[in-house]
Design a protein that fits this description.
Helix content: 25-40%
Order of helices and strands: EEEEH
Distance between the termini: 91 Å
Structural class: alpha+beta
Largest sheet: 2 strands, antiparallel
Low-confidence stretches: none
Shape: elongated
Strand order of the largest sheet: 1-2
Number of helices: 1
Mean pLDDT: 74
């Protein structure tokens, strides 16, 4: 199989793989990831590990916040049977009926 090539700034390569024209890059083109050295791979993994830990802390913080808000709102209602009715968490005071 013969592949067509074109001249570009970095040399020759297959047409339609990341190049729109001579020397122009198409960011939406699907291309093979560049080969990384072991040092670059280790640095990439270290950055991913730090990013993953930050996301873990953020998500656990959100869980704790939602839990605290839920407990706070539930403690405002005296009768637990009112939790399931609409408006039970923050009932609207009404005038007594006659």
């Amino acid at each position: 199989m013969v592949m067509a090539t074109e001249e570009r700034a970095g040399g020759t390569g297959p047409i339609g793989h990341g190049m729109v024209g001579p020397g122009r890059h198409d960011p939406q083109a699907v291309t093979r990831a560049p080969d990384l050295t072991p040092a670059q791979t280790a640095a990439l993994r270290a950055r991913q590990k730090v990013r993953n830990r930050v996301m873990l802390v953020v998500l656990l913080g959100l869980v704790a916040l939602f839990f605290a808000i839920t407990i706070s709102r539930m403690s405002q209602v005296q009768d637990p049977r009112e939790w399931s009715r609409p408006g039970g968490i923050a009932p609207v005071p009404t005038a007594p009926s006659r």
